[in-house]
Amino acid sequence: MGLHESFPAYGGRGPSDLRLGIALGTVATIFMVLRIYVRLRMNKFGTTALIWSLVAWVFTTLTQIFGIISVLHGLGNHITIVQEAGELHHFLLFTWITVFFFNLAIPTGKVAVAAFLIEMNSQSNPKIRRSLILVAAVNIIVNIPQVLLVWFQCSPPNALWDPLLQSQCDHRKSVYYTYFVGAVAAISDIYLAVIPITMLVPLRIDKTLKWGLSFLMGCGVFAGAAAIVRTWAAKFIMSEDSSYGVGILFRWGEVEEWIVLITMSIPPVWPLFRPLTHHFIKSTASRSHPQYKQDGYYGNYGSTTRGNPSIAPPIVTTTISISSQKGGPASATTVRPSSSADSLSRCGEDEPETTHTILSHNGDPEGWVEMSHLKEQNRT
């Protein structure tokens, strides 16, 4: 027996919304499990951001669960079909519960992203730190009325899910305020996606890694685009075929929520994928930098009178680490194979400070990036 037989109001755009939400939710949940594993087993960085992320994940999961129940009772299907199936009461009840948790999940996700970027930035750039705090605070403040307005659209409040009392509800204030909150959410998503790129671009690291990470973290702009679409779709709450139109709002709302959680989880789980990226970077470097020849002029240059094999040029890789001291500067560490030339190459350089990183693995000093004093680094 299929879902259509068990839930006669199920249909329209609802099934595709349901599949999309489950797929994105599964990916986001896997990332959250990996984040917890990395935090417990590999490094101690990012506890505050992880806690906020877990709260956002709980609210988003509750939104998705009640959204699925709403879809089964007619969300995304035409209102005439919902009425004929006698599911209008359940559709209204579960849809507004979904909206309630959605209004909690959206600002929490923004705060989680801001918390991670604040921890990544530490005290290195006070302006960025203050701007991130401002983004988090604004999203919390503007969403408090949004959460409360859900339950005060009707008089009495239970008319919200009573089909016979819908004439006593006025959704205009809630919808108009949704436009404002949606604009704030879209701008916040775009800003939170651009800030980490501005942190990465000035760093002197492998270009493939730099632009790859910039692209992955910049995918948050898709959450901003989704916020714009779902804000536009809020007008369908007041339409005659509201159950069908609100399906658009639900689809893009779940895309926004899950993409925020997915993109913000990429840097913390990087230690698990770092060996793969290093292999790719080394392969790229070997193709772009030819090895020394073993004969002729270069062969004589690379050999010794004792018959030792020629010495290949050392492979130089640049990694980024985060200072273990609060507010400490970030450092770009050059890692070379052990050789007699190291003592000369290090001449005049300061000893690196003790570091801990988001992306470190088994104590290696290689990892994620905290920005600080980039201008001073670039002058050296």
Structural key phrases:
three-stranded antiparallel beta sheet; 3 strands; Rhodopsin domain-containing protein; disordered C terminus; 14 helices; mainly alpha; Rhopdopsin 7-helix transmembrane proteins; 380 residues; transmembrane helix
What does this structure look like?
With 380 residues, this protein is mainly alpha-helical. It has a single domain, classed as Rhopdopsin 7-helix transmembrane proteins (Up-down Bundle). 62% of the residues lie in helices and 4% in strands. The protein has 14 helices and three strands. It has helices at 3-6, 14-41, 47-72, 79-84, 88-121, 126-149, 172-200, 207-218, 220-233, 242-265, 270-288, 296-302, 342-345, 374-379, and strands at 317-323, 331-335, 355-356. The chain has a three-stranded antiparallel β-sheet with strand order 2-1-3, with no helix packed on it. Strand 1 and strand 2 form a beta hairpin.
C-alpha-based Rg, rounded: 27 Å
End-to-end separation in angstroms reads 70 Å
User: Globular, elongated, flat, extended or rod-shaped: what is the shape?
Assistant: elongated
- Helical content band: 55-70%
Return the domain count.
1
Query: How many strands?
Result: 3
Which CATH C-level class is it?
Mainly Alpha
Give the SSE string: HHHHHHHHHHHHEEHEH
The portion of residues forming beta strands comes to: under 5%
Going by CATH, the architecture would be Up-down Bundle
Total count of helical runs of at least 4 residues = 14
